[in-house]
UniProtKB/TrEMBL annotation:
A GO BP annotation: phosphate ion transmembrane transport
Compartments, record wording: Cell membrane
Lineage: Bacteria, Pseudomonadati, Myxococcota, Polyangia, Polyangiales
Chain segments annotated as transmembrane: 21-41, 75-98, 110-131, 137-155, 188-209, 255-276
Membrane topology: Multi-pass membrane protein
Record has Transmembrane as a keyword: yes
Name listed for the protein in its UniProt record: Phosphate transport system permease protein PstA
Domain ABC transmembrane type-1 residues, every copy: 71-273
Pfam families assigned: BPD_transp_1
The species this protein was found in: Sorangium cellulosum (Polyangium cellulosum)
Length: 284
């Protein structure tokens, strides 16, 4: 049996040490997440019922209270924000990766990076001044615009970086066959990068689902059912904040249940992103 080479044991020891360090770091990241999840479930699970999803908020002391309007309002705000932010962000990413050169492209990248670091409450104040003051009312549309701006940097930079990872020979082969450049970008390059872009998009959508400050300053909130985009609308983050800061135990309990539902929505969106990406990759 051959003796270990000089320094082999030291290299193995270093490898084991750093592998253990990586595992420990992963545990440190996961433990707070699991603790938060377990705590929210323990606090909010008792309030889950059909009434929570089908009834309106009620005064303290009345039974059958719920946040059905806030659940519907959150979904509507996500749809409005996504309809504005996703096409804009994806097209901007395509421009930066496939077309953009020079100062304009650099300026767009710089603005996207800066916007990604701007606090969401600042975006809410901006949309309040731009949309709410102009319309002279809070509205779901203003909330959707604020959420679209929040998600724009993530979608834009994710699309750009993933398009840059597409092998250049795919572009060259498509162009060599006489396919116009715009069709190559949309139907060859974008399609190849779509699984990764889809994941980034769903993560951006999951982020805006939990935003409170920009929605509070733009959509305000409501105690009633509403699907009108030109009127104030309820949302889970705002309703959770209001109930959690109230002095009434009943409303505080509803806040915990709302937080659990919001976590479930975000978890579902992340899971959906994983499933869609996995199936897209397998289909290729």
């Amino acid at each position: 049996m051959l003796a270990p080479a000089p320094g082999e044991r030291l290299r193995r020891a270093r490898g084991i040490f750093f592998e253990g360090l990586c595992v420990a770091s992963a545990v440190v990241v996961l433990v707070p997440l699991f603790l938060i999840f377990i705590y929210v479930v323990s606090k909010g699970i008792s309030g889950l019922s059909v009434d929570f999803f089908t009834q309106l908020p009620k005064p303290v002391g009345e039974g059958g209270s719920g946040m059905g309007n806030a659940v519907v309002g959150t979904l509507l705000l996500i749809v409005i924000g996504s309809c504005i932010g996703l096409p804009t962000g994806i097209l901007a990413g395509i421009y930066l990766a496939e077309i953009g050169r020079g100062k304009l492209a650099s300026a767009i990248r710089f603005i996207a990076d800066v916007l990604g670091g701007v606090p969401s409450i600042t975006i809410g104040v901006f949309v309040y001044a731009l949309v709410v003051v102009t319309m002279k009312r809070f509205s779901a549309l203003a909330g959707g615009v604020a959420l679209a701006i929040v998600m724009l940097p993530t979608v834009t930079r994710t699309t750009e970086e993933l398009l840059k990872l597409v092998p250049s020979h795919l572009r060259e082969a498509s162009l060599a066959l006489g396919v116009p450049e715009w069709r190559t970008s949309l139907f060859v390059v974008l399609r190849t990068a779509s699984p990764g872009i889809g994941t980034g998009v769903m993560l951006a959508v999951a982020r805006i689902a939990g935003e409170t400050a920009p929605v509070l300053l733009t959509a305000l909130g409501s105690q009633y059912w509403s699907l009108a985009i030109d009127r104030p609308i309820a949302s889970l983050p705002v309703q959770i904040w209001r109930n959690a800061t109230s002095p009434y135990p009943q409303w505080q309990q509803e806040a915990w249940t709302g937080a659990l539902v919001l976590i479930a929505i975000v978890f579902f969106l992340n899971l959906l992103a994983r499933v869609v990406t996995s199936r897209s990759v397998k289909a290729r």
